[in-house]
UniProtKB/TrEMBL annotation:
Domain annotation NUC153: ranges: 483-509
InterPro entries: Beta-prop_NOL10_N, NOL10/Enp2, NOL10_2nd, NUC153, Quinoprotein_ADH-like_sf, WD40/YVTN_repeat-like_dom_sf, WD40_rpt
Limits of the Nucleolar protein 10-like N-terminal domain: 1-364
Name recorded for this polypeptide: Nucleolar protein 10
Record field: compositional bias (Basic and acidic residues): 536-551, 563-578
Key words of the record: Coiled coil, Nucleus, Repeat, WD repeat
Encoding gene, per UniProt annotation: NOL10
Bias-annotated ranges (Polar residues): 580-589
Species for this entry: Oncorhynchus kisutch (Coho salmon)
An example Gene Ontology biological process: maturation of SSU-rRNA from tricistronic rRNA transcript (SSU-rRNA, 5.8S rRNA, LSU-rRNA)
A GO term from the CC aspect: 90S preribosome
PANTHER family recorded: NUCLEOLAR PROTEIN 10 (PTHR14927)
Length: 669
């Protein structure tokens, strides 16, 4: 249970708190009730007083025993027995319910108007009959003396269905285009219908003719009232024989005396939302009006606010239990709220224990707001030098800190910081100077990291600001430079954009092209006021295709350049590797020259060139004279191996072999 007070009027929300799931077993429910304090304090006035998803409308039978609610999903009607404080039955329907009414004192005769033009009748056992009206209906009213049902909706006609004869009668022809609501006065049976044009037409069912018309749209606009569009009638309710309340779609409620065409009082909700429900409380001359956000209770003679209720979810319908201070609301939520206001009246007979409960709560109020105390934490006490007061009567422990007297707090703070006023004065002077500096010309300072990106963002921000100022549609979106989440990107060098990387070079044509398109779009939007039509022969699709081709070509060019750079880099690496290998081979060759070999440097190059110019005969003679064989290596220099031939030994051996061969020939012969 939640307790609130508005204008010193206590309001008890009996449906506030956690609701236990239906699939829990009784043992688990009892265990949760023993452990959870919120569940222990919860008051379940009526068991299962909720809908699966949303409740659209709620009503109480005339005998006060049954509460009927329509909701979804799936479309259904639920009936609760207040004597048993539980659900009596539930019936599922074929389509959503737009409006329903209870024709009998109990639940035995029900009428439902569906969203698909069907009218469904239910008896005590269940579904009884279904018929269809020509147009989509929005509301209906039952005329008890003639047993006629009057249906209004998306038509200029008011359809009549007689339940005694079981047939449609001639409809009432009106001047309106559409009708939203209707109601019948319980005293003299006058039929009133609220139109979409903001008028109320009154008909006499006895002669089936219009007897009057009220222009509520014109009367609802008073001095200081701001409305958007034509106010239409969204709610209608009679009180007694002469009083009628009309609610408009712009949030105004008009109180009329049927003898006058001017309203006695105009009450504005100041939310601009359509009025969904109007109810009267005759005991205190109060009116309860509700839109989707708030329920306002005010005096019907003076318009003075008595109290108000603002639920957590949107309101669809409000119903007052007759002769009590209890009211039910149908919300955009599975749970249907139950409010009890003792100032409006006593609790109903079936829950009279609420009076005793509220009296006990009023006798022992718990104050949770301390106007004469200051809340301080332990750190604040250390700064003030009052840590030694912990545990004394001067500090009252509360949550993560303490409450202390406000006079003591101000006195100690003045002693701890005697120059607080001077600091406050300097801060105010500094603020004034900064405000005056803000009017001067501002110099844009670029950050140290990502200067080019910051400059680009500044230019785009200026373009957007200029466009928003020209269009007068509001402020421009905040820039990334002013967003705290992206400050590190312009302060930390690790976030520096590497423009020479392959990723940046491949993405830059696309990003730049998107930026060009964006700037072009801003420029076109700015010039849209001057140009009325696009020139013929030039379509936007051609321009977009050209732009796509341009950035595709740029990406391909970047890919080609990256490939060529990689190929040149690999070629240079290969050359460097070959050069290193050659130098290593030369070093190994120099280290492995045999003994007796003479290494000669580049001085033999001139001699070699001179030898090449000589003839072959001269070169052979020179070689025979020197008895050497030259082996040259032109990579680095030349090397020469020198050796001497043993001519005498070779000649002797050849003469010996010649003599032996001649002797053998002679012997054979």
């Amino acid at each position: 249970m939640q307790i609130s007070s508005v204008n010193d009027v206590k309001i008890y929300n009996l449906s506030h708190g956690k609701s236990l799931p239906e699939w829990l077993s009784d043992r688990k429910k009892r265990a949760l009730q023993n452990k959870d304090v919120d569940i222990q304090r919860r008051i379940e006035l009526i068991q299962d007083f909720e809908m699966p998803t949303v409740c659209t409308s709620i009503k109480v039978s005339r005998d006060g025993q049954f509460i009927l609610a329509a909701g979804t999903y799936k479309p259904r009607i639920r009936c609760y027995d207040t004597y048993q404080l539980s659900l009596k039955f539930e019936r599922c329907l074929d389509s959503d319910v737009v409006a329903f009414d209870i024709l009998s004192d109990d639940y035995s005769k029900l009428v439902f108007l569906h969203c698909n033009r069907y009218v469904e009748f239910h008896s005590q056992h269940g579904h009884y009959y279904k018929t269809r009206i020509p147009k989509f209906g929005r509301d209906f009213a039952y005329h008890y003396p003639s047993c006629d049902l009057y249906f209004v909706g998306a038509s200029s006609e008011i359809f009549r269905l007689n339940l005694e004869q079981g047939r449609f009668l001639n409809s009432l022809q009106t001047d309106a285009v559409e009708h939203n609501v209707c109601d019948i006065n319980p005293v003299h049976q006058l039929l009133a219908s609220g139109t979409a044009e903001g008028k109320v037409e009154c008909w006499d069912p006895r002669v089936r003719s219009r007897v009057g018309m009220l222009d509520c749209a014109l009367s609802s606009v008073t001095e200081g009232t701001e409305v958007e569009g034509l106010p239409s009638v969204s709610a209608l309710k009679f009180n007694g024989s002469l009083t009628m309340a009309v609610g408009t779609s712009t949030g105004q409620v008009l109180i009329y005396d049927l003898r006058s065409s001017r309203p006695l009082l105009v009450k504005d909700h100041y939310y601009g939302l359509p009025i969904k429900s109007v109810n009267f409380q005759d005991h205190l001359d109060l009116v309860l009006t509700a839109d989707s956000k708030i329920i306002k209770i005010w005096n019907k003679d003076t318009g003075k606010v008595f109290s108000s209720i603002e639920p957590q979810t949107n309101i669809n319908d409000v119903c007052i239990y007759p002769g009590s201070g209890m009211l039910f609301t149908a919300n955009e939520d599975p749970k249907m709220n139950t409010f009890y206001i003792p100032a409006l009246g006593p609790a109903p007979r079936w829950c009279s224990f609420l009076d005793n409960l509220t009296e006990e709560l009023e006798e022992s109020p718990e104050s949770t707001v301390y106007d004469d105390y200051k809340f301080v934490t332990r750190k604040d006490l250390e700064n003030l030098g009052l840590s030694h007061l912990v545990g004394s009567a001067l500090l009252r422990a509360y949550m993560h800190g303490f409450f202390m007297d406000i006079r003591l707090y101000h006195k100690v703070k003045t002693m701890a910081n005697p120059f607080a006023y001077e600091e406050y004065r300097k801060d105010k002077i500094r603020q004034k100077i900064e405000e005056s500096r803000a009017q001067r010309v501002q110099i844009k300072k670029l950050p140290k990291v990502n200067k080019e990106l910051a400059l680009k963002l500044m230019e785009e921000g200026d373009d957007e600001a200029e466009l928003s100022a020209r269009k007068k549609k509001g402020k421009a979106l905040p820039s990334i430079l002013s967003d705290e989440r992206f400050q590190v990107m312009f302060e930390n060098p690790d976030y520096q954009v590497e423009e020479q990387s392959e990723e940046f070079r491949l993405l830059n044509p696309i990003v730049s092209k998107v930026g060009q398109k964006r700037r072009k779009k801003l420029r076109l939007l700015a010039e849209a006021d001057q140009e009325e039509e696009e020139p013929e022969g030039r379509g936007s699709s051609d321009e977009s295709s050209d732009d796509d081709k341009s950035w595709v070509d740029e990406v391909r060019e970047q890919r080609r350049l990256i490939y060529e750079e990689g190929r040149d880099r690999r070629r240079q690496e290969r050359k460097q590797q070959d050069r290193n290998t050659t130098l290593l081979d030369q070093d190994s060759t120099q280290n492995h020259i045999k003994a007796g070999e003479e290494f000669r440097s580049f001085g033999d190059v001139a001699r070699k060139q001179k030898l090449q110019k000589a003839s072959l005969e001269e070169r052979l003679k020179l070689e025979e004279r020197s008895g050497t064989v030259n082996v040259a290596d032109t990579a680095v220099g030349s090397k020469q191996l020198t050796f001497t031939l043993k001519k005498q030994v070779q000649c002797r051996e050849s003469l010996y072999h010649l003599q032996v061969s001649q002797l053998l020939k002679i012997s054979w012969s």
